[in-house]
C-alpha cells in the first residue's frame, strides 16, 4: 500500500471528506488523490441521484464544489455518446468510471492548424481511473456501447471552468 494511513474509501461521502482533506494541504499530492479515487469502489445507490441522462447529449452534474479548490462532477454519457476533443486549461483532470465503459483517445496538444497526432487509445471499465492535463495533451471521451450508459466521477483541480474544443483533422 503506497500511502500508509489512506484507508479504503468505503462510501462516496467518505471519499468526498478525504478529498477535501487532501486539498486543504499547501501542496496537493496528485498520486494520493489518484489513489483515493482508485480505492473507492463504485456503488450505484450512492451516485445515482447525480445522474441525469439526455437522449441527445451528455450531462455533467455537480457533486461537490470542493471549497473552491476543485470540482467533483458526475458525467453521464448515453449509449454511443461522446465529448469532443478538448483541453483542460490550467486544470488536472481525473476520471473514475462508476458504471459502463469509457474510451479515451489522447492527442498531442495542438500547436498549429494541422491534423492532431493521436498518442493513446484506451478503454476503461468500472472503477478504473485515468488522468490528463494540458502537459499530457488533449482528449476525447466516448461511450462505445450502443445500449448502456457510461457514468463517471470527474475531479478537476483547480476547478474546470472552460475549455477549447479541437477538430481531429484541422486541429
From TrEMBL:
| Pathway participation | Organosulfur biosynthesis; taurine biosynthesis; hypotaurine from L-cysteine: step 1/2
Name the source's superkingdom.
Answer: Eukaryota
Name the reaction it catalyses: L-cysteine + O2 = 3-sulfino-L-alanine + H(+)
Might you give the EC number(s) for this enzyme?
1.13.11.20
The record's cofactor note says: Binds 1 Fe cation per subunit.
As one GO molecular function, the record gives:
cysteine dioxygenase activity
Which GO annotations describe the biological process of this protein? L-cysteine catabolic process; taurine biosynthetic process
Return the protein name.
Cysteine dioxygenase
Source organism per UniProt: Capitella teleta (Polychaete worm)
Amino acid at each position: 500500500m503506497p500511502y500508509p494511513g489512506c484507508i479504503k474509501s468505503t462510501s462516496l461521502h467518505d471519499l468526498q471528506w478525504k478529498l477535501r482533506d487532501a486539498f486543504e494541504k499547501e501542496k496537493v499530492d496528485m498520486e494520493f488523490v489518484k489513489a483515493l479515487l482508485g480505492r473507492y469502489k463504485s456503488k450505484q445507490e450512492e451516485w445515482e441521484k447525480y445522474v441525469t441522462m439526455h437522449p441527445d447529449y451528455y450531462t455533467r452534474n455537480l457533486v461537490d464544489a470542493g471549497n473552491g479548490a476543485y470540482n467533483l462532477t458526475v458525467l453521464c454519457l448515453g449509449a454511443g455518446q461522446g465529448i469532443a476533443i478538448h483541453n483542460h486549461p490550467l486544470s488536472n483532470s481525473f476520471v473514475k468510471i462508476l458504471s459502463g465503459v469509457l474510451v479515451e483517445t489522447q492527442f498531442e496538444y495542438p500547436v498549429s492548424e494541422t491534423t492532431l497526432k493521436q498518442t493513446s487509445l484506451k478503454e476503461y471499465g468500472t472503477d478504473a481511473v485515468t488522468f490528463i492535463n494540458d502537459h499530457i495533451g488533449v482528449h476525447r471521451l466516448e461511450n462505445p456501447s450502443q445500449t448502456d450508459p457510461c457514468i463517471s466521477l470527474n475531479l478537476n483541480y483547480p476547478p474546470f471552468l472552460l475549455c477549447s474544443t479541437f477538430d481531429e483533422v484541422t486541429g
